[in-house]
Amino acid sequence: MFSGAQISLYPMTDGFVDVILDAVKAMDTEKLRVETDDVSTLLVGPHEELFAAMQALFETAAKTGHHTVLHATVSRGCPGEPDDPICEGPLDAGLFGPLAERQAEAVESVKAKPTSGQRADGQFSLYVPGASIHMDEVYGCIDFLKQAGVFAKPKNFCTKLSGDSAAVFEALHQAFVRFGTPAGHVALDVTISANSPSLKA
Amino acid sequence: MFSGAQISLYPMTDGFVDVILDAVKAMDTEKLRVETDDVSTLLVGPHEELFAAMQALFETAAKTGHHTVLHATVSRGCPGEPDDPICEGPLDAGLFGPLAERQAEAVESVKAKPTSGQRADGQFSLYVPGASIHMDEVYGCIDFLKQAGVFAKPKNFCTKLSGDSAAVFEALHQAFVRFGTPAGHVALDVTISANSPSLKA
After folding, report:
1. Is A145 helix (H, G, I), strand (E, B) or coil?
2. Can you give the residue ranges of every domain in chain A?
3. Cα distance between residue A37 and residue A30, in whole Å
4. A-chain residues within 8 Å CB-CB of B4?
């Protein structure tokens, strides 16, 4: 199983370089492979570490008070990627239970997460390429988000999320590991925003 | 066929609101349905209009000289979306020919596009959810990008693009309409960047 993310951070300020560099320092990347270019930074490694690193990056940038957006293209099990020992983790161990069971486990994981005090608003799309179960899993995931308390509203092509950043990132993490198929390809297109002036209007 | 995009523009400057509002004015949205919230703007309509609007938005913001990124989640044929008469277009009319034929047509469309003089660097992922042909179409699309002269490099989970913005947006447009299946679900996760300081270093 190969899992990772291409992440980009967009602080809407003239001092964006410093906000990005400080936020990058907040990520614990000890267990991750990291590669950066002018468009995004690749993180490869276990899914727990991936989502913890993204949450730290987002929260550190959000605390500056600037309107800041994190975008991530997250993927596991892509048939075009080789397996990588760095990615080994719990997901490889088990088979998936029925949808209702996975939804309950996912909700429990979100509820168990300590809050951060940072508000996060965003949206994401879940893709299960190459699998005929695609829409069942997508609808099952949306049900889970409602139960977990981070569902904001349905949108075309994606689902809007809102809540404490710890709950939002854990919900994305659970969407990533508990839906689709255990060994199959799952991809997320994630956008998480902080301090938008549109919300203050 | 329902087609549209959730788009967001990220100008990395204290004056981001004005850059966004000016760029939005540059989009021709006469044939599009537009809905905005704090995270993204929905455009629904024919695919030619969608990509032309995104190109205008990007180029107008890029011309300010600020480091600016456009992100778009683009989708057609999603089984969760109702058909919409506003989206009718050439794609609905025809069946797909063999891959090599579609690649040649796509290359021709990119080459025929008048240049803008604006450089664009970015990356995108093509998803064909629910279809077993997923990876064949993805690899076929990457081959087309190489032939069209906008392929920059392979990356994990996505393909990096570079070139004149007109060629880059037309390549994305062609990827959207000529790959996957004619009536099936195709989604793009698109990031296009201008004026990155990383490229000036």
Report:
1. helix
2. 3-200
3. 20
4. 156-157
Q: Are A180 and A140 in contact (CB under 8 A)?
A: no
- The topology (CATH level 3) of B3-196 is Alpha-Beta Plaits (3.30.70)
* CATH number among 3.30.70.20, 3.30.1330.40, 3.30.70.330, 3.30.70.930, domain A3-200: 3.30.70.930
Per-residue model confidence (pLDDT) at position A170: 98
Residues of A in contact with B191 (CB under 8 A): 8, 39-40, 71
A164 pLDDT exceeds 70? Answer: yes
Angle CA(B31)–CA(B36)–CA(A172) in degrees, nearest 5? 120
Answer yes or no: do A6 and B123 touch at CB < 8 A.
yes
Q: Contact, B107 vs B123, CB < 8 A?
A: no
DSSP A5-24: EEEEEEE-STTHHHHHHHHH
Sheet of strand A158-164: strand arrangement: A33-36, A41-44, A3-11, A68-76, A186-194, A119-127, A158-164, A151-155
User: A4–B123: do the CB atoms touch at under 8 Å?
Assistant: no
> CA-nearest residue of chain A to B18?
A12
Residues forming beta bridges with residue B11, ordered by sequence position? B68
Of the pLDDT bands very low, low, confident and very high (cuts 50, 70, 90), residue A181 is: confident
In contact, A68 and A26? CB cutoff 8 Å: no
Question: What average pLDDT does the segment B161-165 reach?
Answer: 98
Q: What's the complex ipTM?
A: 0.93
State how far the alpha carbon of A180 is from the alpha carbons of A155, B21, B131, in Å: 21, 39, 14
Chain segment A85-118, per-residue pLDDT in tens = 767 655 554 578 899 999 999 999 999 999 999 9
Q: What's the token pair of residue B63? A: 């011309």
Interface mutation vs chain A, best among B8, B9, B10, most A CBs within 10 Å:
B10
